[in-house]
Amino acid sequence: MTDLNEAFEQPLKGVKVLELSQIMAGPTCGLMLADMGAEVFKIEKFPGGDDARNYRREGDSGLPPSFMMLNRGKRSIGINVKTEAGRQALMRMVAQADVLTENFRMGVMERLGLGYETLKEINPALIYCSITGYGRVGPLAHKGGFDMVLQAFSGLISVTGEEGGEPVKPGVSIADVNAGILAAVGILAAYIHRLRTGKGQRIDTSLLQASMQQLYWHAAGYFSRGLIAKPTGTAHPLIAPYQVYRCRDGRLAIGGANQSNWERIADVLGHAEWKSDPRFDTPDLRLTNRKVLADLIEQVLATNDVEHWLSRFDEFSIPAGPVQDVGQALEHEQSRAVRMVVDVEAPGGGTKRALGLPILFNGKTCLASSAPPKVGQNSVEILREFKFTEDEIKVLLKSGAIIQTEAAVSETRSVDAANAAV
């Protein structure tokens, strides 16, 4: 294990989060909050739990790696919120919680009697965060949504891919991940507001908003001149040279984001005359003649390897980097240095590597590194922490409103006895 848990006061220590959300967007939010110190209680249906528990590739065993990545540091309680006893148990937890997250389709929580207007009566300080597909207002608010669907609807897919080619989905779940980040930002802002006023509030974001936020510069072109952006491959819509170029043995990303960088690029490539070439001597002309310039640059880069050119660009402080595959990026020492690759507990013992929190506090972090839970693994201990009595816990288990899949129901009861009670 690395020194993840060195002496460090986590900023959200003691904050209680009830995570009713599942799959990716909501769990991304919960993971970030957990890494900042919050206690995240994963409220799961049973027997299946979070649908992401079933997202497997061929060869996966045990908990799917994709589920483990987003759910470390959390504890699971299995609650059947379709039962009155289950709802009442959850409401008792809400009364003692700080945050609740959910990503159900519009109206589901209200039909369950768990909508914000109901829960804020129980806990006026509650921060209630909803992540939907299209938002909670407007003509499409009733529709469900998935990452790829909202990337398409938002226009994001239409600007991704090679120039002149078909639109392509980005290789990552931008809508889901960004929605989770936006949810965390909203929760933190609401928490600051609560510290000032004592009042909670409802926070809303959606996969649509999370996708459209990525289009700042494309939207600027449309609003100003009616321009409809098209795919440009790795090239930048406003800057050149700024894209990925082929070298003799691989590809190199080069960022000529300003005049100084451009001039140094021309010098390093041995073509100082490009600086005064009437096709390239202003940013607008370089953008207009981007294809011609790219061909000239690649002709030079093709004479040597990526490492050679990277060394040369580094020597002259020109922003450049190799196009690495995911494995190369994860194995690079820089990824470990900034704690984006960390060691966390694995189910059954030992450690596994995971992605860390992309934020450091005074150069430090203290991640939620406990192993991701099985469905309902922590039900009994969580109920105890929320001040349920042993008799109340036994009744909930026996009725089926709560499920405990692992660990003893009490210090004197075995796992077999707990299962028998269910």
TrEMBL record:
UniProt cross-references to InterPro entries, sorted A to Z: CoA-transferase_III_domain (IPR050483), CoA-Trfase_fam_III (IPR003673), CoA-Trfase_III_dom3_sf (IPR044855), CoA-Trfase_III_dom_1_sf (IPR023606)
Listed SUPFAM superfamilies: CoA-transferase family III (CaiB/BaiF)
Pfam family, one: CoA_transf_3
Keywords on record: Transferase
GO molecular function term, any single one: CoA-transferase activity
Name recorded for this polypeptide: CoA transferase
Organism of this sequence: Pseudomonas putida (Arthrobacter siderocapsulatus)
